[in-house]
Amino acid sequence: MHGMVLQLIQRVDRLGHKIFMDNYFTSPALVDDLFQQKINACGMVRHDRRGMPRDIGPKSLKMKRGDIATRVRGTLRAVHWKDRRDVYILTNMHASPVEGNLTQESGQAIKPCVAEDYSAYTGFVDKSERMVNSHGIACRTRKWTEKLFFHLTDMTILNAFLIHKSCGGKMTHEILVRELIIHSQEGNVTARGT
After folding, report:
1. pLDDT category of residue 189 using cuts at 50, 70 and 90
2. CA 165/CA 107 separation, integer angstroms
3. Is residue 130 part of a domain?
4. What is the domain extent for residue 99?
5. Mean pLDDT, residues 18-41
6. What is the mean pLDDT of the chain?
7. Which of 64, 73, 171, 190 is most deeply buried (CB count within 10 A of its CB)?
8. Please, are residues 113 and 94 in contact by the beta-carbon 8 Å criterion?
9. Is residue 101 part of a domain?
10. Helices then strands, each counted (H, E), the chain
11. What's the number of CA atoms in the CB half-sphere (13 Å) around residue 55?
């Protein structure tokens, strides 16, 4: 994935752009490489990703809701924040958040700036991923090409549903999927008959 991101940014003019990524792409090596190309990056990351500090993972730190721990290496900051679940973020564009426990009087965790920025810039992407995952057709497979095919199919169906809805359509997501399948099958029968 590292190479794919670097290939996608080849046409970027490298004047301080900001990239926000999910944990599928984010790694310390990628964030370092992007910084070398004058591109700022921020993204969720898996705690066990190669290059992540080992003393920030769930086995090293027993955290309660609202706790924040940060590790810094050069321009890279690894942030571990505990809300309802453990959240790990890598960034080269944010200052290190204050460590310790930050909660409101109600006991609700106070979100650090890095997490707020991530949510603000990836909110629609996360929402679409949740929608796709709740209605997805993706099958379990090891081949990345099949995963990509099913993911793109899911995204196409979701986009068709959103366009249909924006035009005042009343069809549910499930009915729309059924109609697309029926229409596809009719098209195949017509194509074979000619």
Report:
1. low
2. 39
3. no
4. 2-111
5. 88
6. 80
7. 171
8. yes
9. yes
10. 5, 6
11. 4
The answer to whether residue 126 is domain-embedded is no
Residues 141 and 58 in one domain: no
Strand extents, DSSP E, the chain = 18-21, 40-44, 67-73, 76-82, 86-91, 100-101
Please give the tally of structural domains in the chain. Answer: 2
Token pair listed for 164: 């249909």
Q: What value does the CA radius of gyration of the chain take, rounded to a whole number of Å?
A: 21
Residues 66 and 144 in one domain: no
Residue 98's pLDDT is 83
Checking if the pLDDT of 78 tops 90, the result is yes
- Tell me: do 158 and 87 sit in the same domain: no
Residues 104-139: pLDDT tens digits?
888 888 888 898 888 888 765 555 555 555 555 555
The owner of tokens 């910084």 is: 35
Pairing between β-strand 67-73 and β-strand 100-101 as defined by DSSP bridges: antiparallel
Is residue 3's pLDDT more than 70? yes
Hey, what are 73's tokens? 């290496």
